[in-house]
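Q: Could you predict the 3D structure of Pyroglutamyl-peptidase I?
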Amino acid sequence: MEHRKTVIVTGFEPFGEHAVNASWVAVQELEKLGLGQNVDLHVTEVPVEYQAVQNLLPSLWKQYHPQLVVHVGVSGMATTVTLEKCGHNHGYKRLDNCNFYPETECCMEGGPDCIHSLIDMDAVCKRVNSSDLGVTVSVSKDAGRYLCDYTYYTSLYLGKGRSAFVHVPPLGKPYSAVDLARALRAVVLEMLELMEHNTEKQLCSHGH
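A: Sure. Here are the predicted structure tokens for Pyroglutamyl-peptidase I:
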């Protein structure tokens, strides 16, 4: 019998030229699709505010004890669904929706410069692209030094690497919200599969 898993998927509120944020629209569509009967999916809209992120994320991790937290954000430059490999600690100078940025320009004073996800994004990318989804997935090492990157780093730090970040293009460029939701579903299920596989491997290597 498979254990139930808890997964949190977040999108962001509107900001800048994004009067509608494709990430939150896609995440709401994903909630309708669900992740199957063995996965409890919780979705949340994240404010585009540094201080709000600092307050919200610890409470999400604490409240739900998720196996995986996936943050989804929109990128005006993206034309594919992009899996981010790591979050960065420094370089936060762009003003948020409250016209604020951290005085230290960093996420976590004394924290590592960069934290990588435990999930092998290349493997996820390859698997999803070889399925017949009709949505192209790619990988990236630069989540953009704004709220996306900031949120990702914070979550990687809190969750000891059990987090992922996915950038989506704006709606209709080229994908619909439903297309994006289908891609997110495929991506998250592959991530869970890989994590499960890695846990089994670790258990085997410890001789249990």
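Q: Anything worth pointing out?
A: The longest strand covers residues 5-12.
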